[in-house]
Amino acid sequence: xxxxxxxxxxxxxxxxxxxxxxxxxxxxxxxxxxxxxxxxxxxxxxxxxxxxxxxxxxxxxxxxxxxxxxxxxxxxxxxxxxxxxxxxxxxxxxxxxxxxxxxxxxxxxxxxxxxxxxxxxxxxxxxxxxxxxxxxxxxxxxxxxxxxxxxxxxxxxxxxxxxxxxxxxxxxxxxxxxxxxxxxxxxxxxxxxxxxxxxxxxxxxxxxxxxxxxxxxxxxxxxxxxxxxxxxxxxxxxxxxxxxxxxxxxxxxxxxxxxxxxxxxxxxxxxxxxxxxxxxxxxxxxxxxxxxxxxxxxxxxxxxxxxxxxxxxxxxxxxxxxxxxxxxxxxxxxxxxxxxxxxxxxxxxxxxxxxxxxxxxxxxxxxxxxxxxxxxxxxxxxxxxxxxxxxxxxxxxxxxxxxxxxxxxxxxxxxxxxxxxxxxxxxxxxxxxxxxxxxxxxxxxxxxxxxxxxxxxxxxxxxxxxxxxxxxxxxxxxxxxxxxxxxxxxxxxxxxxxxxxxxxx
Length: 505
Hints:
Layout: H1 2-6, H2 9-67, H3 78-98, E1 102-108, E2 113-117, H4 128-152, E3 156-162, E4 165-176, E5 179-189, H5 192-242, H6 253-316, H7 323-348, E6 355-358, H8 360-377, E7 380-386, E8 393-396, H9 397-414, E9 419-427, E10 431-438, H10 466-476, E11 480-487, E12 490-498
Parallel strand pairs: 7-9
Antiparallel strand pairs: 1-2, 1-5, 3-4, 4-5, 6-8, 9-10, 10-12, 11-12
Helix pairs in contact: 2-3, 2-5, 6-7, 8-9, 9-10
C-alpha cells in the first residue's frame, strides 16, 4: 500500500482499474477453459455413443446390400426399398428398444422414403395420421443435415432444433459401389438445462467480452480526463507561483470543487499578504511620522532664524550694492525648505479631519477646475466617465481633494509630451471607486511595491511624499488606494471609498 501511495496519480488509477477488470477476466478465462471444455466433453460422449449405434446400423445394412442383387446403375425398385426397410427394421428395433430416448432414422434420397424407430419423448400412443405427420416433421428437422451428408458423402454430427427443444444428431451415408443408397442417423434430445447452460455460456462470453471492452474504453477515457485535469491543475499552480494574480480555470464535478478551493485559498493568501503589507506599512509610517515630526520641528526653527536674519540684513544694508540679489536667493530657498517641512508635518502628524456628506463627482469637478490649465499646458486630453447620482459619502473634502490632485499631477508627470487622462467614478455594492488612467510610460515592476513608501520618487525634484500622504488620507477614510494596472502604455490608479465609512483620527 505504501508503494502504491508513492506512485503517480495515473499509475494508481491504472492499478485500480486493473484490479477491477481482473474479476471479469477470471470469469471469462474459467468459462473458456473449463466450462467450454466440460460442454465439449459431454457432446463428445454423445457423439461417440450415437456414432457407435449409427456405425453398427450402417455396417449391418451394408452386409445386407452386399448379399442382395441390387442394380446400382438404375433406380431402386419397390422391392429394393422393401429389402432395405426390412433390414433397417431388424437392425434398428433392438438398438432403439435398448436405448430409450434415442431415435434411429433411415432416409433414402432417391425415393424420399423415411423410416424411423424410437422416440425422443412419447407420452401416449399415436394414430396413423399422427405418425405420418411426425415423419414429415422429423424429415423437415433433419433436412439440412441430410442435404449436407448427401452433398459431402461424409459423416456429420451437430446440435439441431429450436431453443428448449434441441437434439444431438449423428448422420452417416450408406454407400455401395460409390453410390449413396441411404443416410442413417441417430439423435438424442439434449437436456434443456444443458442447452440453456450452453446458451448462457455463449451469452456470458459475449457480454463479458463487451464488458471488458467497454470497461477498458471507459477506464482509458476517465484516466485521460483525470490526467488532463490534474495536469491543468499542476500547470496552474506553477503559474500561480510565478504570478499570484493567475487562477485555475473552472472545472466540473469534484475536480471543480478542488479547483475552487485552490482559487479561494490563493485569494485568501493574497488578501492576507495585502493586509500584512498594509500593517507593516502603517507601522513604518507611524514610526517614520514620529521621526519626521521631530526633525521638521528642529529644522523649522533654524530656518525661521535664517529668514529673520536675512530680513534684518535687507533693512540695515539696503544701500549695499547687489545684496538684494543674494538675500532673494536665500529667502526663496528658506521658503522652499518651509514648504518641505510643512509636507513633512502633514505626513507625520495629520490634522483632525473635518467630515461632511460629499458627492464625489462634484468634488472631482472642483478639482478639475484648477488642474485643467495644467492639463492643457501639458497637451493632455481629458475624458470624464462619471456615473450619475452617486450616493453621498462622509469624507474630509480638503484632504480628499489633496489625494485627487496628487494623482492628477502624477499622471501629468508620467505623460511628458502629452497624452490622455481618463477619470471614472463607479458605484459598486459596498464602495464608490474613482479610477485614474493615463497613457504614460507606466511603472516598473520592481517599483510597484514601493510607490506608496515615503520619500520614494523617480523624479529629481520630488519629495516622494505625495502618494504616501494620499495613502494615509485614504486609509483614514477606511478606504483603499492601489495600482490597478500598469504597462508601457500607461497606468491605472484606483481609489475606493466605503459608502458607510467611519473615519479614524
